[in-house]
Amino acid sequence: xxxxxxxxxxxxxxxxxxxxxxxxxxxxxxxxxxxxxxxxxxxxxxxxxxxxxxxxxxxxxxxxxxxxxxxxxxxxxxxxxxxxxxxxxxxxxxxxxxxxxxxxxxxxxxxxxxxxxxxxxxxxxxxxxxxxxxxxxxxxxxxxxxxx
Length: 148
Fold this sequence. Notes:
- It is a single chain.
- This protein is an all-alpha fold.
- The chain has 7 helices and no strands.
- The chain folds into 2 domains: 3-83, no CATH class; 98-147, no CATH class.
- 72% of the residues lie in helices and 0% in strands.
- The longest helix is centred in the N-terminal third of the chain and has 25 residues, at 3-27.
């Protein structure tokens, strides 16, 4: 075989590979961006579409947006839905025991145990870590203002 034939063959294989990658990527169905405000039902349907189309990262992002879950919680939930271990419906929200839960959170804040207060907030109210941290900090600021 001549060197020019081998060079032509290598170029043809390279161009073919690039064309194949382009063709496969153009065939993947990319869902449109979700509307900014989704109802819980619409959000869950869009989440199911993302999971079915194999867009796990986008599904995790949407799960966090819809349910206020942490990154790990959203990843675990999306993987469970993808694998059929969990239904494609929204997780049930915990019942909020407002007076008792908030008293325990306030006690932890007064004792300067902010991590414990955040854990209690998430346990009783659900939601993600950032949401709980922001809520506990707001409660702490409110308590400081009431003290004077």
